[in-house]
Amino acid sequence: MPVQEPVQAVVALDLATAQTYSENVFLFLPNIIGYVRIVLAGLSLHYMNYHPKYCTIAYGISCLLDAVDGPVARARNETSKFGAVLDMVTDRCTTSCLLCYLSSAYPRFALLFQFLITLDFSSHYMHMYSSLVTGSKSHKTVTNDFSRILRFYYHNRHILFIICFANELFFVALYLMKWVSTPIGGSVAAVIPFLAKYTWPEVAAAVCFPICFLKNIINIVQLWKASKTLVGVDLYERELARQEQKKREE
Prior knowledge:
Blueprint: H1 9-18, H2 29-47, H3 52-64, H4 66-75, H5 81-105, H6 110-133, H7 148-155, H8 157-177, H9 186-191, H10 200-249
């Protein structure tokens, strides 16, 4: 089977500029969904400091649409490298902006939130880059031989959605804890009395914390595996260079 040669950057730029093909990747429906996510994320940031209801609605819809663009892309045969990167960048930036707000809302934990931002960006960037240099078509293509936990995370879309959703819900709950002070009470407290003194964001945060913790353990594993992969590629390429140098000297 012939190996597909990589497209030169200048050629790719000219193709995107000329748009001589019959389709426009920028206007693929899943990518349009991605643009809507960005607008909603921007609105949530606008309202974040003074209107928690509008902020939460906009942020929540933006995050939920993350589960829509992938199936739409596959159903319409509109998967694209641009769409995959757009999706990942939107996820990272949206979460990071919320964590920046949480750093100011909970100054005692600012260093922890900054660490989570750094871990999230670095692990995903290095994982995607290591996937590209090893010839993988998608950063979500992971085998058990490479990492069982990353295979568990990426292979099943339902598991991926649950972990990502709970991770975001934990941070949103932390945000809402600054705005909601009324205990749950009512019928819920009658059924589960010990919840009567807690607000619903506090309960949501407690429920989602273990999954958020798991998500960041996965990020650490992802960063470590990607680092080892890149080092392995370096060692392989350096050995090839030494062999070629040796042949030229003979």
